[in-house]
């Protein structure tokens, strides 16, 4: 069975992000994508490169992601993989989810360590190039 995967990049600038999101919606509506892979914590300005992240920023990022979940559910795609920040007491996490139409959001993985931006080197994908998505076996049956 073949699946069509869309991997996207969205602007960190909130005004451009809104335009990027509309463009993504149009692309998905016209291209019958099965799986959309969104960037890490896409719904708030990227704050991870700061040495210290205030509680105010943590809470705001969580709130913004919660608001955008409704937009994820409107996308014309079977599956969406995304991550969102979470607060649990005084701990701040980055949790990955898979959204499946009709079945809702399932937690895939939670991490507490965020990347140090200057040391993070990830080569860009070129059109038609593929990278493996690693997830626990229990969730692979959702997609394959």
Quick recap of the structure?
The chain is α/β, with parallel strands linked by helices and 144 residues long.
Number of domains: 1
Per DSSP, the total helix count is: 3
User: How much helicity do the residues have?
Assistant: 25-40%
Identify the strand order in the major beta sheet: 1-2-3-4-5
Task: Looking at this protein, list some descriptive labels.
single chain, 144 residues, alpha/beta, 5-stranded mixed sheet, 3 helices, globular, disordered C terminus
List the helices and strands and how they pair.
Blueprint: E1 5-7, H1 14-31, E2 35-37, H2 55-74, E3 79-88, E4 91-100, E5 104-111, H3 137-143
Parallel strand pairs: 1-2, 2-3
Antiparallel strand pairs: 3-4, 4-5
Structural overview:
The protein starts with a strand and ends with a helix. A five-stranded mixed sheet has the order 1-2-3-4-5. The chain contains three helices and five strands. It has 144 residues and is of the alpha/beta class. It is globular and about 45 Å long. 31% of the residues lie in helices and 24% in strands.
């Amino acid at each position: 069975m073949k699946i069509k995967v869309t991997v996207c990049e969205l602007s960190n600038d909130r005004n451009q992000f809104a335009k990027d999101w509309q463009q993504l919606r149009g692309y998905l509506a016209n291209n019958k994508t099965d799986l959309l892979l969104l960037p890490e914590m896409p719904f708030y300005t990227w704050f991870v490169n700061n040495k210290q992240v205030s509680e105010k920023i943590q809470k705001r990022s969580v709130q913004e992601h919660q608001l955008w979940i409704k937009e994820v559910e409107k996308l014309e795609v079977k599956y969406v993989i995304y991550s969102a920040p979470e607060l649990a007491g005084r701990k701040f996490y980055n949790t990955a989810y898979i959204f499946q139409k009709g079945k809702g959001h399932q937690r895939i993985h939670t991490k507490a360590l965020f990347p140090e931006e200057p040391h993070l080197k990830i080569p860009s994908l070129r059109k038609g190039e593929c990278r493996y998505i690693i997830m626990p076996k229990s969730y692979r049956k959702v997609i394959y």
